[in-house]
Specification:
alpha+beta, Aminopeptidase, eight-stranded mixed sheet, seven-stranded mixed sheet, 28 strands, 28% strand
């Protein structure tokens, strides 16, 4: 298997292989790979009747999933062997959901496979983009109406006659975005000009929008597969109201006839672009996956669920109902890392997404939960291997709340720092005291979304750990299962406070509250009476933090706020 830099001479045979698979992901066209060849060092090869595309990702070689009617499994075996000779694991991207399943069947326990949300393609029904009918797209119709009312306009195909005008418009567009300019934009513009230069040879089709005779927007794309057209580029002057939805609609009307769908590519993690693409209500949000050869892999909930339950029960002694509840609500196919030995899972750890804040800045992080190894496999370093892998793989801060001093010392040896205070208290209150005091204020149940809003507003501090709506909904559901829940306390002063609690036999466990400690103690008698308990436990568990290189200054000492630790 010999790779060579992609050239125009590769178009015919590559297009044949691509047509055999009829994929609807935007990466799978000859033109897309050709115009990005200089940016990503794109090279191609034929092997066992398949097309294999190689490119650079993060300074390392990455390979496409094999394309075509040939022997894909044999191709992957060859790639594994080749990468082993080079001392590197095989990396593949992108994979469809079907590719990911097939890879797991062919090579069980050999690849870490995870979805890449930033790379998901937005695929729309062509008819809906053309008509913009229905209530949901009313706003788009209004934008187009305003554009039409703004002066004379016209649409025309991209051609030799207007190509240079489009180039000139691109330079003006760049100047208008100079404050937001970055390296990625620079790359995109260079690729756009590659597309201009080779438009005919690549079979690219474009459209141009004019206002008062001047080009204000253009777009370009190509047929992707038997039923889908893909749009690679779309540029409009940002100060021209309605120009983007107008060029979008006109191009779909004139250039995409005969296709059921239009693929408008990914959002690359740009939240503004994500919002814009979601606002057109895609028919399909096409999932894409990355795969890397690894001894540490993600547990497959459907296929390995029983193994996980058994390991969990042996190591933690939790009831089966709780394990089932966690797996149903919090476990995914890409947040529990495991190690296999003797054909079974022997060690595991979950890595749940959170945000961590320091000095007013926020970063993605992972909360480490349910670290466990089967007793007969302990002492072999399996858990530390999973954690070491997670440090390198995520490249994000890791947080956890160990259940005791011995475990804290263990994690210190792995590079974790004591980072969150231990504020736990337990009290016993007599029934005489209970009957003698009043709580004051009203209390009502609170939904997760509202809880998150108030929580972030009241508890945010240096070293704050922010949980999303889904995580908080899970915490609330856990409390409800244990006779509690989330509540809004309306103080007599008008101030709103949060209370999240559950019951353990005769003990009221306050998981989290925004009440000041003295005010909480005033309310405890009434809370205990209402819940039928006589003891109370409250305050957060101590926590620990690991920071990647380059983020050591994010350490806030033994400060911060963790809570909702699932412990």
């Amino acid at each position: 298997m010999e790779f060579h830099e992609i050239t125009l001479q590769d178009r015919e045979w590559m297009s044949q292989r691509l047509a055999e698979d009829d994929r609807n992901a935007c990466e799978y066209t000859f033109a897309n790979n050709f115009i990005w060849r200089k940016i990503y060092g794109v090279a191609v090869a034929q092997l066992y009747g398949c097309l294999v595309i190689r490119f650079m990702q993060g300074g390392k070689y990455c390979y496409s999933y094999p394309v075509g009617a040939g022997d894909k499994r044999r191709v992957i075996e060859e790639l594994i062997s080749r990468c082993k000779e080079d001392g590197q694991p095989l990396r593949m991207s992108p994979l469809s959901k079907e590719d990911a399943k097939q890879l797991s069947l062919w090579f069980p326990e050999k690849f870490l496979i995870e979805p890449q949300r930033d790379d998901f393609d937005y695929i729309y029904a062509r008819e809906k983009l053309a008509s913009l009918s229905g209530k949901k797209l009313h706003g788009k119709r209004n934008h187009i109406a305003r554009f039409k009312d703004g002066g004379d306009w016209s649409y025309e195909p991209l051609s030799d006659e207007n190509l240079e005008e489009c180039r000139t418009m691109t330079y003006t567009w760049m100047k208008m975005r100079s404050e937001k300019w970055n390296e990625e934009m620079e790359k995109e513009v260079s690729v756009l000009h590659e597309a201009f230069d080779n438009r005919k040879e690549l079979g690219l089709i474009g459209g141009v929008l004019r206002r008062e005779g001047e080009i204000v927007a253009f777009t370009m794309g190509e047929p992707l597969n038997s039923d889908t057209f893909v749009v690679h580029f779309e540029k409009a002057f940002p100060d021209m109201q309605g120009a983007y939805p107008m060029i979008n609609q006109q191009f779909v009307l004139h250039a995409c006839e005969g296709y059921a769908y239009v693929n408008r590519e990914e959002d690359t993690g740009d939240l503004g672009l994500r919002k814009a693409k979601l606002s057109y209500y895609p028919e399909i949000l096409l999932e894409k996956y990355d795969a890397i050869e690894s001894e540490v892999v993600y547990a497959r909930k459907e296929e390995e669920g029983e193994q996980i339950k058994e390991l969990w029960e042996v190591c933690f002694g939790d009831e089966a109902s709780y394990i089932d509840f966690y797996m149903e609500n919090r476990m995914t196919d890409s947040n529990m890392l495991v190690l296999h030995e003797d054909g079974k899972i022997v060690s595991m750890a979950s890595f749940l997404p959170v945000n961590y804040e320091h000095n007013g800045e926020e970063t993605a992080a992972r909360y480490v939960y349910a670290v466990a190894t089967l007793p007969e496999y302990r002492g072999r370093g399996y858990a530390s291997r999973i954690l070491s892998f997670a440090k390198e793989h995520y490249g994000q801060p890791l947080l956890l709340a160990p259940a005791g001093e011995e475990l804290m010392r263990y994690y210190e040896r792995l590079g974790f720092l004591r980072a969150f205070p231990d504020t736990r208290e337990q009290e016993h209150i007599t029934m005489t005291a209970l009957s003698a005091q009043e709580s004051g204020g009203a209390m009502k149940a609170l939904a997760a979304k509202d809880y998150v809003r108030l929580r972030d507003g009241k508890l945010r501090c240096d070293g704050y750990v922010q949980w999303d709506d889904q995580a908080v909904a899970y915490a609330i559901a856990l409390c409800e299962r244990a006779g509690g829940g989330a509540f809004l306390l309306q103080e007599e002063t008008g101030e709103e406070e949060l209370l999240l609690y559950e019951k353990e036999d005769d003990t009221l466990v306050i998981v989290e509250t925004t009440l000041a400690r003295d005010r909480l103690k005033e309310k405890l008698p009434a809370l205990l009476t209402e819940s039928g308990t006589s003891r109370v436990r409250y305050g957060q568990m101590p926590g620990m933090l690991w920071l990647p290189e380059g983020m050591k200054d994010w350490f806030a000492g033994e400060q911060g706020y963790l809570a909702l630790t699932l412990a």
